[in-house]
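Complex record, two chains
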Amino acid sequence: MTARFLHSLPARNMLRVIRQNRKMAIVTSILMILSGPLIMVPIIWEIVRESQPNQSYSYMDSFELYMGIGFICLGVAVFMGMFCAICAFTETHKKAQVDMLYSLPLTGSQRFFSDYIGGVCMYILPYIIAAVLGWIAIGIGCPFIHTDDGNTLLRETVSNYAMISSGLFVLMLLYYTLCVLITVCCGTLFESIYANILLNCLIPGTLAGVLGLISEHVDLSFEYLWQIIGFMSPIGGLCYMIYLLDNGSTSVGSYVAWDAIRGTETHSHDMMPNYFRWIVILLLLSAVLLVVAWQLYKRRKAEHVGRPFVYIGAYHVMITLLIVLILCLLDFDVIGPVLLFAAIVYFVCEIIRKRGFKRFWLSIITFVVTVAVTVGVFAVVIKTNCFGREYYVPSAAVVRSVEVESVNRRSYDVDLEFTDREVISQIVDFHKSIVQRKKTDANPCVPINRQLDATFPYRLEYNGNYYYDNDVYTVTSMRDERDYDDDRNHPEPAYGSYAENFRYDLTYYTLTGSVVHRELSLSADELCELRMILLNSKLFQETSAAAVKKMLLQELCTYDANTNEYDFPLTVRITTYNSNGSQTRAMHGSMENLDALSTAYAHDIQNMSAEERLTAPLYCTLGNNSGSFCKIYEGFDETIALLESWEFKKFTVPERYDFVDKENPKNAQAGNQTLLSVRIYAPDQWSTDSLKYPNSSVSYNENTYVKGDRDSDCAYKDHIMLFETVAMKDFYPEMYALLEAAQEEYISEEPCYCILVNGVRYIIPPKHNDLAEAVIAKGDLYSQDHLEEYFNAHASEFGYVTSGGDDQAMQYDDELNGSTGYSESYDDQEAGPGLQITDGSAA
Amino acid sequence: MMTLKGTVKRFGDFSALDGVDLEIPSGTAFGLLGSNGAGKSTILRLFSGIYSPDGGEVLIDGEPVYDNVSAKQKVFFINDETVQFSSFTLIELKNFYKQFYPNFSEEIFDRLEKAIQLPADKKISTYSKGMKRQAIVITGIACCTPYLLLDEAFDGLDPTMRIIVKRMLVDAMCERDLTVVISSHNLKEINEMCDTAALLHHGKIIFNRQLDSLKGTVHKIQVAFADKEREYTREDFAAIPEILHFAKTQSIYHIIAKGEEADIRAALEPFHPVVADMVPLTLEEIFIYELEVLGYDSQVFA
């Protein structure tokens, strides 16, 4: 059959395509084939090395660079698909070739498909070889991976590689076919190249622009709408594939981090159907594009070569997408510049297409109509709230399950799919109340950050180096620096640019099989309402407890794939950590101990109300530095009792904020100095809204957060200070007390002080308002005279109350490292018999 | 037989062929003459299946050509470009066409290739214009198709090579029933090569005749009359079937006329010519005078 095909006339033309473009085929093949091993061999090597720490596998030098080169090769080779399409169909734009190719004894269809397959052979075949080489690399590496971590990594690597390699194959096919279609629509090489580049970018770009514009005004799920892009174009598809790979699991927020439940099946089942559906749709889309390209090719005539656009529709699609994309920037403030820019782009394209000014009046009319229609459609969609879709909430009775997912991706995310009828009913009611508020209130969603920003009257200033220079701490009023209108009122629109919403996606899966997606833009109050529902759900509690156990198993034990059991060492270490790793204690290794801890955690989660959880101070964080952790709050009585029986303590201030701690000299490593940047945000005394303060681990952009800010004015900004506990307490006890009282998370009806510590916001519960006020008040006291007085009195402590560059830091390190053998003695202490807690079967 | 039946071909607003009827019998060496843009290349491209007609029919041995593999396998078209498949070597070019044309003759190809001694292992892009032309001509002849179409076939060839190529074509026509259609502005070559020719102008066929009969029906007459005082006009000779050109130099009248020699002489007799020489016309002169009648006159630029 193959031999017969190869002797057919179309196959001969296909070989002609390859032979005629062999240089490009060779370059593409080399790049493509190199990319497979260059990417996969370093990955597998690292998995093997990490899975066998006892073996002396050498570290692969610069393996990231090899991978980087591999990705560059792959990227360039994938991009070459456009040129493969253009070169395979030379008869569409090269006049000199038209006669020879059209006079060959082939029908139009035979010529089209043989050209198409010729291009596929140049473009896709090398990729398949590269993918196979990648699989071979995985196959060779498999026998050398033994540990649980290794298996997990390998499983993830294999499944991700399978998804990526097959997804990329489909995307390349779609990309190539789209390029063929565009090439068939063009008549010159120049137009073919620029139309291919523009259309490939504009299809996803314009869709994203339009959806972004709509989602700014209408609370539909942008994430859901965004998926449309993934089904419409190769670049969009690539983004969607990355989204699918990145979105295959779930989160229970700040209580247990995502990494801890990686590998659980909680949500992974959602990913594969989406993936396969996506693959099938893209294949169908490729087939449709191929048929369209074929039909257009059959209808185009030899004499069309040389025309800028043989099918003018392609040009109109391109230029319309371009204009719509530009108009997506449309805002009343910038309407003039946007329209002018759109007009310039449009008319330049028209002049290029028409090779002059022929019938230019028609271009002007077309432009005006395009702009009018686009703006009109935008206006209709926004004014009608996307034809009323925004306000539609399905009845709880028809909802099979509802998936809640945070768009902002903060640490307090709770991303779960709820099937409990009660929870579904509560979520539906909540959603309806949001819709109702939106219908009745012109401005229902007042983001908390906006309020906080508007109410920040003071700034604690730190000017320069207090040890060597003339340093002054002052507290200055921010009010004078703010933009006021003539009536001394805050100009409302000015806040919009740095206001922030809390955005949640709700996905309802109904009994009829339909799916309803909505993206909610929530105020702080509304967010707290939603979180009350979610945190009180049994699913959240169960998932959290299961995730803690999973995390502990993953972090502490070795999984034996042969026996399908976890192998406990005699002594396992549990760490509570800040980023420097603070407390490590040993316990006897056994499943019972892990069960006890996870059971205690589950009990605590269930016994506390959501409100209690949202106001409790942090006790410690359990886990490691690599992203797997769960947070223990005061009020988690059983868990804390268990931890304290293992001699854990509550986090101190230095542990929470990563100060250099005299008790733990490991923290004083060179280059690990503490940058302490503190800002205090006073509560909004004149706000009529009730405020609730959820926590945030998002690093704020300080320069945009404080209007009229200058770098030199920022409190402690860009300056290294090495604080240690004693000095902190002595030097600035008010600040120490304030930091001790600050909570990551706190809800309250009362306005609260907030502080930003190194860009992370903490809430000061109202009962500690005096501490915040003390810090603000003390700011006035720190003049040069006070500092000198302080330093004269504490001259002996200057060794560790220092500041500035590396010289001082290194000196400090040397002193600490030279003075103790702390690390060794600490490790010895860990394994001491007094720290073994319970007996276990592994003993 | 190659046939155009009421064939129309338009390029936008421009009508390249306007209802052309043409029959080229097998075994003919057919020349296509015409002004620039008359439609000669268009006819060749229609016969080779490159263009589809906008009206009428284009047939080869009774079959439509466009999108028809079997009809297209009977035709080999050599256009006036010299850049096609320039990344191939001569051998690759031969192998490529050999796959498409089942009657391809290696023996003919080798013989022709030896005769002109082209570097077979070098890429065609390194060839000169003339060498490229030779390469495609010998490939076309070796394809052994019943119909060989040449558009400006002798462009770029030196005089010796022109003779060689012509001999190749003549040999091929002698060896088999090859039909050659040549489009050229070089009327001398058409005159030498072709037995039949058609003249096109503005998408229409002005004449389509065997060259020998064509030459026999157009005459250049140099005539002087006894009455030297009288000024004769074109209208005085209305009895001559068709006068293409009429001019006077001193007492000699130069007349280009269509028709039988005897008829022309009879028409002149009443005016008592002192001298009446009938000079045979070259094809170039026929071309010029025919188109002059249609307003395609070099004098417009004088």
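Note: Residues 237 and 267 of chain B are 7 Å apart (CA to CA).
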